[in-house]
Description:
It is a single chain. This protein has 2 domains: 8-120, Beta-Lactamase (2-Layer Sandwich); 125-333, Histidine kinase-like ATPase, C-terminal domain (Heat Shock Protein 90, 2-Layer Sandwich), CATH 3.30.565.10. The protein is 43% helix and 27% strand. It is built from 8 helices and 13 strands. The protein has helices at residues 8-21, 56-59, 62-78, 122-158, 163-186, 194-206, 224-244, 294-308; strands at residues 24-30, 35-39, 82-90, 93-105, 111-120, 192-193, 213-217, 221-222, 252-262, 268-278, 311-316, 320-328, 332-333. The protein is elongated and about 100 Å long. 26% of the residues are buried.
Amino acid sequence: MNSTSVNESDRLRFVLAGLRSAGVSMMYQDTDLVIRFSANLPETWSLGGDLDGRTDETVFSPQHVEKVLSAKRGVIANAQPTKIEILRDVDHERHWYMLNIEPDMDPQDNVIGVFTTITDIDDLKYRETVLKTLLRELSHRSKNLLAIIQSVASQTARHSQGLEDFLLAFRNRVQSMAQSQDLVTASDWRGAELFALTQSQLQPLMGDLPSGFTMVGEDAYLFPNAALHLGLALHELTIDSLARGALGPAGGTVELSAKEQSNPDGSPELLLTWTETYAVRQAEKEGTNKTRNGFSGTVLGRIVPQALSASVHHETNADSMVYQLIIPGSQYELEG
Length: 336
């Protein structure tokens, strides 16, 4: 080849090489849809040699050929390009292809043939499938979250003394859920670590954890539903403790412990315990050993245990307060 010139044959070779490297195949057919030229068709299609003079029945399977022929006839009739997608089985694997069909026009704007470019779109279809799955999951989780917020709003209103009391309590509880949601979202919706979740709930209310607050045992990885509901429980426990317990007027220590054990069936479960030991002995009150009333009692005694399919024990006396959940293995995992 002359170094200063490129002939038409070379140009065509360069174009075909570029199409091949880009994974693009092409066909040209006359208005009778007889193949006059083809290049770079996938080798896995096993078409059996030269296609010149043959038809789409040679290239496409019976379940697709009518769809392809109908599209090409429409391009010839309307002189307008179109696109179609086909699914083809190759070596027992399914592959998606995009067919871009365009009319070939003469100087008088008459259609004299059709160009078809064929592109493998497996990657695009995979991304579409993943996106649809993510959107369905997002819709499902959003509905769950909205149901939780609706329940929190209803229960907060039921136990509030007035509008200002409701707004303050509701804002704090929504902020609590937002803290948990941030952790879950940051993990790509896998969940949240127990100790990080606890810190996220206490930090807005107390800043750095006080020296009297400790976390011991298994730093379980909570799945999204468990993280959101347990975050709400930790918020209520902290608020109660600041108001009347070891983090507030009673003084003393708080320990959050987590220990994995086996239930009678041999299945794993997490024993989660919030224990407050008071520095100042509290006056005994009627019903002290019962769970608390109000929204806090509803969250700790009913909403969270039901959401986690967990059993609950909540006891308060003059010297201490214990809140304990036994969480089934379906709600968490232990890493490492």
